Amino acid sequence: MMSDDLAALRAETAEQLAAAADLRAWDAVRVATLGKSGKLTGLLKGLGAVPAEQRKERGAALNRLKGELESAIEARRLALEDAALEARLAAERLDVTLPPRPAAPAGEGGIHPISRTFEELVALFGAQGFSVAEGPDIESDWLNFSALNIPDHHPARQDHDTFYLPAGADGRRPVLRTHTSPVQARTMLGQEPPIRVIVPGRTWRADHDATHSPMFHQVEGLVIDRGIHLGHLKGCLIDFLRAFFGIADLPVRFRSSYFPFTEPSMEVDIGWNRKTGQLGAGGDWLEILGSGMVHPKVLANCGLDPREWQGFAFGMGIERITMLKHGMPDLRPFYESDLRWLRHWASDPLSPPSLAEGI
After folding, report:
1. Are 265 and 290 a contacting pair, CB within 8 Å?
2. What tens digit of pLDDT does each residue of 78-102 get?
3. For 107-133, how does the pLDDT look when each residue is reduced to its tens digit (9 = 90+)?
4. Can you give the three-state secondary structure of the chain, one letter per residue?
5. What pTM did the predictor assign?
6. 113-345 has which CATH code?
7. Which of 31, 139, 258, 327 is placed for a possible disulfide with 177 were both Cys, Cβ 3.0 to 4.6 Å?
8. What gap in Å lies between CA 33 and CA 27, rounded to an integer?
9. Domain-by-domain residue ranges, the chain?
C-alpha cells in the first residue's frame, strides 16, 4: 500500500534523529528529509503521478507527515541545543569567589583603579584611627538634604541635579543619594560620640561629560569629639594628601568657601604645574576637596548638643583623586569595560595596599 512508504519514512526519520548526536548530524537528517532533494520532497513531487481518485487522500497524508516530521526535527534541534549549552556551561564553570590564580596570564584578574583607591583610602585613614561606615544608596529626602542643613530652595534639590524616585505614603520622594554625607547623619543618630569614620561609596547626580558621570564615587570623613578645632582638620587632611600622592612636601592650601553643612567651610587646594599636570610643583593650585567644621544645626538635627560636641567633615571624589594620581585625562573609561584600558591600569590583586609595605 502507498501508506507503507510514508510509515517507513516516518520510522526511518525518527531513528536517524535519535541517532544524531550533535547539530551537524541533525542538519544532515533535516536536509535528507526536507531538503530540495529530500525523501519527503521527492514524494511530494511525485504526487502528480498518483491516480486522480487517490491523489486527494495521498496529498492529505503527505501534508500530515510533513507536519509531523517538521515538529520532530525542530524538537530534536532544541534538545541538542540545550544539551550543547549544558555541556558548555559545565566545561566553562568558574568559581568567581576564589582568589585569582597566580599562574594566570599577565593582565588578568587585576584590581580596578577605583577599587584600589578604596583600599588605599581605608589603609591611610585607618592609620589615623578612622573606621568605615556604610549606608543605603536610596535615601530619604530628610537624610540627604534637610538633616544636613540644605534648605528646600537649594538648587541641589532640583530635578535637573538630583534623581528622585516616586513619592511614598508620606508624600516625600526618596532620592538616589547625591553624596555620601547622609551616612554621617545616620552615624551621628545611631552612635554615641566620639566618632571617627570615613564613608566611601557610590553617589548619583544628573551630569555626564569627560569629567562627570551620573554615577560616581565619593569618600566622606567625619570626626566628632570634645574640643575639636580646625587644627585637627588641617593636620588630618595634609597628612592624608601627602601620603596618598606620595609627595612628602606637597603644598596644601585651605581656602574659605561655603557649604550648608559646615561652618566655617574650606576648599582644599594642592600645588601643581598647570602646563605639565605635575603635582607638587609649578606654583599653581588645584582644588581637590571640600571640608569644614560641622555646622551646629547639623549636630542639633542629629541629636547632639553643639555646646558640648564639635567636629569636622570633609569629602572628595574618588574618581578625581584617582585620575590625578595616575595622570588619567578622561573619566569615562572607568566604566566602559575596555579590556585594554583595564589591563593597563589594573593593580596586582595579590599585593593590597598597606602602611607596612606602602601603597
Report:
1. yes
2. 999 999 999 888 888 877 788 766 6
3. 467 889 999 999 999 999 999 999 999
4. CHHHHHHHHHHHHHHHHHHCCCHHHHHHHHHHHHCCCCHHHHHHHHHHHCCHHHHHHHHHHHHHHHHHHHHHHHHHHHHHHHHHHHHHHHHCCCCCCCCCCCCCCCCCCCECHHHHHHHHHHHHHHCCCCEECCCCCEECHHHHCHHHCCCCCCHHHCCCCCCECCCCCCCCCCEECCCCCHHHHHHHHHCCCCEEEEEEEEEECCCCECCECCEEEEEEEEEEECCCCHHHHHHHHHHHHHHHHCCCCCCEEEEEEEECCEEEEEEEEEEECCCCCCECCCCEEEEEEEEEEECHHHHHHCCCCCCCCEEEEEEEEHHHHHHHHHCCCCCHHHHCCCHHHHHHHCECCCCCCECCCEC
5. 0.66
6. 3.30.930.10
7. 139
8. 10
9. 2-91, 113-345
Show the CA angle centred on residue 224, arms to residues 219 and 161, nearest 5°. 40
